[in-house]
Design a protein that fits this description.
The structure is a single chain. By secondary structure, the protein is an alpha/beta fold. It contains 14 helices and 5 strands. The protein has helices at about 10-20, 25-40, 50-60, 90-100, 105-115, 140-155, 170-185, 200-215, 225-230, 235-245, 255-270, 290-295, 310-330, 335, and strands at about 70-75, 120-125, 160-165, 250-255, 275-280. Helix 10 crosses helix 11 (about 255-270). It is globular, with a radius of gyration of 20 Å. It starts with 10 loop residues before the first helix and ends in a 5-residue tail after the last helix.
Length: about 350
Amino acid sequence: MFAKKFNPANFHQIYEFIRGLPVTNQDFIEKAKIRQSNLTKPRGSLGRLEELAVFVSGWQATDTPLVEKVEAIIFAGNHGICDQGVNPFPQEVTRQMVENFKNNGAAINQICYSNGINLKVIDLELDRPTEDFSGSPAMTESETLDAFTVGWNAVNKDTQVLILGEMGIGNSTVASAICSAIFGGSVDSWVGPGTGSDSAGIQKKIKLIENSLVRHKDELSSPLEILSVFGGREQAAICGAILSARANSKVVILDGFICCASASILHAMGEQALEHCLLGHLSAEPASRSLASLLGKKPILDLDMRLGEGSGAALSFSILKAAINCHNGMASFAEAGVDTS
């Protein structure tokens, strides 16, 4: 049954939910591996394509998985930290890009069109940015839960593969703050140019995050508190969508640094929380490689992309689709009459 509704009244209910997540089906993983070993090719010769097909088989509980109904969701939000001048572009660009998405004018539109992906764009109170986290927590618990629930309810029940992306001027600073709070290390190791900050802009981000970590040190005791203090509505919505997909054993493809920083909240709540997720690509944002490693994710693509908006994840779907088509469509040695003796 599709677990469509989940309206947590507090953070504790999300923690409780994560304890009972469904897992991949090991029986069908083994069946898919057997099928791969009988296809007309040397065993292992399709490399990562074989791994991807087996991965989807386990989550769909079939040795002939389908990836025909695919949806990409972009969550868009605005951020109070932009009041500190961390962004080279004005916040109005968030809404302008949302309209561009809706008018089929962005890169993500063309990539989705090329790969038969249905695109959905959800803007989250763009006229009401989060609070400036350099002075106070970005969101209250209630606001965080509201955005989480929007993300949960955005996932279509018929979707076989979910692709996630984001849009929000200033959200690379948000992502860097989240990673700093969750994983530790020097703040400068988590901060990059984002949409084009110069060296002075990067240093401003670093100092703001360092000061904010000190200011909020007593409010960062759990991952969801970190999300409330530093996150935005799109980060909370991504978390909700990831868990909604997991509740129904759907495969998720994550986009780059900002999307993965959002997902790291769930990873910090339980490493098993992202087992159904693939990493679409390695972003050119400097901290992306470290983040991918900490999440235990191997990118499908590495094309020096750093656009965001789900573009790398959507593009990687073409590889996943090819993997599934090979898995389902290739003949076995017996079917092809190929001698294996």
